[in-house]
Design a protein that fits this description.
The protein is α/β, with parallel strands linked by helices and about 375 residues long. It is about 35% helix and about 15% strand.
Length: about 375
Amino acid sequence: MIPYGKQNISKEDIESVVKVLNSDFLTQGPQVPLFEKAVSGYCGSEYSVAVNSATSALHISCLALGLQEGDLLWTSPNSFVASANCALYCGAKVDFVDIDPLTYNISVEELEKKLINAKLDDKLPKIVIPVHFAGQSCDMKKIKSLGDEYGFSIIEDASHAIGSHYLDKAVGGCQYSDIAVFSFHPVKIITTAEGGIATTNSNDLAQKMDLYRSHGITRDEAFMRGKSDGSWYYQQISLGFNYRMTELQAALGISQLNRLDDFVSKRHVLKKRYDKLLERLPLIKPYQSLSCYSALHLYPIKLDLAKNFPNNREQIFNALRENDIGVNVHYIPIHLQPYYKNLGFKYGDFPNTELYYENVLTLPLFAHMTFKQQDKIVSALTNILL
């Protein structure tokens, strides 16, 4: 089976992990700070806080920005559920903004319309989470302008986007946001097996996230309530979680980061080849904005189902799977999940997202995918559609 995404582990990656296994520290050692410094150096952020998943990073980002019961968070319905769940973890409510039918990212026009109405109703969001779907950055400059006007904080869900650039700056530098979050799941651009990181330019936010990821505990006397009992002493000063990244994960991340640009470059070669090979098929290839250099986490195609009659999307999906092609669908709209339907969301709330979902397939794309594998995918898809 050709997977839709897959990690690439080198000899150097393995050696870096083995070196940590033979060291004194498997957790809470020097590798995590080194990884954080390396990510900040790549992205251009002042601070990075590494955790065990991007979901955890989203959660502590919301907490650091003070999200709580009675607050509202808005995000894109075209994402994994974690982009919305992080609000519910904090006791806040969540709502969605429909996507741009061209980029599949949050629509700035829809966001502005919703903000105008929300201001009239006194129901403005405390936080907006734009999701950089498939690696392509949202229009962050315009979103930041709206944030300044309407007073909301911004967390970039850049889970797909490490290695991406927006307006010639690396995503994660937080030029237009308070915090950015990356994922290092094995199907992402680089991996730490499982893991995530939050970048920021705010010392205050970084300190809060550092506390939240480690039980709310500090050994720094500057943050303690009262005098320390001695060098062994620590205090819990907030209610935190065990969201720490291990030394093994961080060592793998440092090694992987050295090949990030190469991974993204190879994805671009494969993307351009897909674009050429799929030209004559009845489908819509993914659009790339001129303001963004995407890391190309995904290659989603929109099927022209009217031209593919009698094949529907499920038949096409199953036929590709029968050909050992690990095609996928990204994403099932969050608001159509049963849990969110129970919160009052329904079909018809976000039509652009729903129409996109009904027609999309994700073709395999990963840095070390061979041209032979790509040819097999295109050949199978051609035989099904034509």
